[in-house]
Design goal:
The protein is α/β, with parallel strands linked by helices. Helix content is about 60%, strand content about 10%. The chain has 11 helices and 6 strands. It has a 6-stranded parallel sheet with strand order 2-1-3-4-5-6, sandwiched between helices. Helix 5 packs across helix 7. The longest helix has 29 residues.
Length: about 250
Amino acid sequence: MPYSGKAHSSGLVPLIKVGDAVNLVGMVANNLTQDSGSKTTVFIVEDQNLYLEGLRQFIEHYPEFEVVGTARAANQALVQIAKIKPAIVIIDIFLPDMSGLELLRQLKKKSASTKALILSEAHEENVINELVESGADSYVLKSESNIEIYKSLSSLACGKPYYSPRAGFKFFSALKNHLQEHENNSVNTVSASLTKREQQIAEYLKAGLTNKEIASELGCSAFTVKCHKANLMRKIHVNSSSEIVQWFSRSKT
């Protein structure tokens, strides 16, 4: 494989392993069989000249991909990407004029359909969280085998996200946390919209009281309790008293 040299700041660019070569040949053959007439366009944003050239040569080794442009700074990349409109943009997180994460955010605002492959050594949890929130389609560590870059490009070309083995575990862990946080925020928003009487009824239901018993506690009719309970179920999207109890039990965890 003709791709070697020095990486960003961490030693040698990882060469493709012999064991990966068989899988790689199969992937290439499969891609060529699926579509032998079109190329997936790729744009690279990387500030290290040696790594940029090595990556460009590696990608162009495969006929299904075409590198249509490169940039060593984020602002330069935004101008060129707007003109060229590549299918996939490879972004290094660390750029001289703007972080790769900010570039990713701006790219997604201007062209949500453009796929973004984040390529970096960074795999700290806070970085992964920001990648999730910014809409990264793929994440590969520079220290991993080049086949991971190829797998990522091939998956993105088919409209599928890809996260390399080392990066993937932390990525999906961060995604899970992000979704949980979003769910918690939604629960808090709904809880804030409940009236005092609806919250009281929920507490009585959790204590196992019937509509008649709740009415007695609140000094109102059972019909009034039913009306409040119906509004409560509508707001939290449930259909029964037991589901109300379950919803409030989850929201307190």
